[in-house]
Amino acid sequence: MNIVIPFFQQCNQTPDKTAFVEEEHTISYIDLKTGIEKIAAFLRIKQVRNQCIAIALDRGIEAASSIYAVLSAGAIYLPLDIKNPVTRINFIIADAQPAFIIGIGDAPDWLDNPAIWLDLSQLPLTEIKGIFPVLVDKNDLAAILYTSGSTGNPKGVALSHQALMNFSSWAQTTFKLNQLERIASLAPFHFDLSIFDLFSSLASGATVYFLPARLSLSPSRLTAWLSEYKITTWYTVPSLLSFIALKGALQTTDLSHLKRLLFAGEVFPCPHLIKLADLLPDTELFNLYGPTETNVCCYWQVEHQRLTVEQNIPIGYAACDADLLIDTESGELLVNSLNNFSGYWQQGKLQPLSTNYYPTGDKVALNTQGEYEYYGRLDRMLKCSGYRVEPAEIEQCINQLATIVSCAVVGIKDLTSGQRPVAAVVLTGDATLSNTIKPLRQQLAPYMQPCKFIVLDTLPRLANGKTNYQAIQRLFES
Questions:
Q1: pLDDT digits over 416-447, tens only?
Q2: Segment 428-436 long-range contacts (CB within 8 Å, at least 24 positions apart)
């Protein structure tokens, strides 16, 4: 087994087809394969099998080629977010202990050990007799993705070849991917959404178009780009889809080629989802759910007729043949799946799991139709005057208000009630906060009413597009 084998097989079927498009740069399957093999041959000489190799490159063709080369050599890829603060990058490097770091140009000043730096532009041409990719055991590690936004230091989520292959194959089948697909890719490679962009796509013979990051700040230019390149499939985060639903000029942009939109990573506010579904009636919408540790373990195809502003959409049914359980006491979702991670990578080695069922930390319940519904993070739960308060429930209520673009709720300490909810909101146009939040007095119990609001131009986001709750917490504590 090796997660990259389907790509190599595809190269034999469609060698001249375009694999990646990045701005004005395009590369065919066969040329991509040639470049991958050159890097992989060099790595084989270095005897890197089962070792961690970090990738310090921006999302794009060079980074994707390096990831495929690392896997082809039987090693483990670790994508670094080079836009992160130096302290965080150095923490990850110290914790992961990679054998090498692949980049371009001279070793950066922040790297304590420049001897492990591999300048991609200066790698010597290496001749090696052998067939790529190297065959590995299904349980051998393929990727280490350091999660963002968790309390304390980042954790390296270690994923096996089997875990990546199980998801990739499920996605190909479920979304009927084929050689005619034009897939937009915006997810950073350290974010688990990129597994779809990197592996499900090329295994299907599709063409991947790297969406320029600058367009994420301009929704009308983003939708124009989707139209220009006749994108058929895009997997992204709800916050960005909400943005284009509100300001993406969808009424005047031809997206007739867009067959499906997949979204994951956070709750999609229903008023914005309804608007998106109204504006793109012929596009299939899918809600995918799962923490990095399980990748996708639930999914739900949006049923337009069931959407209401009062209720969040389900996370649906088990995906990827996952076995799901609900803890009878806490309501926590437990997941046993071939997608599941192998353990956390710490101090240069794997800390294996002690159980087959991964506790997601998310509260769920089954509805009358047998679908799983998401009720928020157990670790975000607030205790307000003796009441258990779920911030996600308050967020859902606020997001229903007519002039709310987005919101985030956190808790602050209170001497009398223990904790009090507070909210950061983004408003539309000339809306005023006082008029916007008036309905909350009739919609939320007194102990659930946010005691303070902050109006922002945009909510702070993590590099993967999710809401940065820690940054919002700091706004209220400053």
A1: 667 899 999 999 988 999 999 999 988 887 88
A2: 428/246, 428/403, 428/404, 429/403, 431/403, 435/403, 436/401, 436/402, 436/403, 436/404
Q: Does domain 381-477 have CATH number 3.30.300.30?
A: yes
Q: Report pLDDT for 239.
A: 85
Cα distances (angstroms) measured from residue 215 to each of 72, 191, 222, 478: 32, 19, 5, 32
pTM: 0.87
Contact (Cβ atoms closer than 8 angstroms) between residue 202 and residue 10 = yes
Q: What is the SS3 string spanning the chain?
A: CCCCHHHHHHHHHCCCCEEEEECCEEEEHHHHHHHHHHHHHHHHHCCCCCCEEEECCCCCHHHHHHHHHHHHCCCEEEECCCCCCHHHHHHHHHHHCCCEEEECCCCCCCCCCHHHEEEHHHCCCCCCCCCCCCCCCCCCEEEEEECCCCCCCCCEEEEEHHHHHHHHHHHHHHCCCCCCCEEEECCCCCCCCHHHHHHHHHHCCCEEEECCHHHHHCHHHHHHHHHHCCCCEEEECHHHHHHHHHHCCCCCCCCCCCCEEEECCCCCCHHHHHHHHHHCCCCEEEEEECCCCCCCCEEEECCHHHCECCECCCCEEECCCCEEEECCCCCEEEEECCCCCCEEEECCEEEECCCCCEEEEEEEEECCCCCEEEEEEHHHCEEECCEEECHHHHHHHHHCCCCEEEEEEEEEEECCCEEEEEEEEEECCCCCHHHHCCCHHHHCCHHHCCCCEEECCCCCECCCCCECHHHHHHHHHC
Domain positions in the chain:
5-375, 381-477
Beta-carbon-side half-sphere exposure of residue 27 (alpha carbons within 13 Å) = 19
Q: Is the pLDDT of residue 465 over 90?
A: no
Neighbours of 449 (CB within 10 A): 16
Task: Summarize pLDDT for 75-99 with one digit per residue, the tens.
Answer: 999 999 998 888 889 999 999 999 9
Q: What is the largest CA-CA distance in the chain?
A: 73
On the question of pLDDT at 129 being above 80, the answer is: no
CA distance 100 to 350: 18
d(CA 370, CA 380): 26
Tokens for 380? 């975000």
- 354: CB partners within 8 A, 6+ apart: none
Give me the pLDDT at residue 86, please: 87
pLDDT at 425: 97
> Cα(216)–Cα(214) distance, rounded to whole angstroms?
5
Using CA atoms, how far apart are residues 399 and 377, in angstroms rounded to an integer? 18
Is domain 5-375 given the CATH code 3.40.50.880 in the classification? no
